[in-house]
Amino acid sequence: MELLDKLTILTDAAKYDAACTSSGLDRNGRPGGLGSTMAAGCCHTFSADGRCVTLLKVLMTNRCIYDCQYCVNRRSNDVPRTAFTPQELAELTIGFYRRNYIEGLFLSSAVWGSPDHTTERMIEALRLLREEHHFWGYIHAKAIPGADPLLTRRLGELADRLSVNIELPSEQSLRRLAPDKSKASILAPMAQIRDSIQVSRQELAKYRHAPRFAPAGQSTQMIIGATPEDDRHILLLTQGLYDQYGLKRVFFSAYMPVSDSRLLPARQGFKPPLLREHRLYQADWLLRYYHFRAEELLDEAHPNFNPLVDPKCSWALNHPDFFPVDINRADYEALLRVPGVGVRSARRILTARRCGPLNFEGLKRLGVVLKRAQYFITCSGAFLEGLRVSPDGVLRHLVAQERPLLAQGAPQQLSLFEAGA
Question: Which of 64, 67, 317, 383 meets the CB 3.0–4.6 Å disulfide criterion with 110?
Answer without folding.
Answer: 64
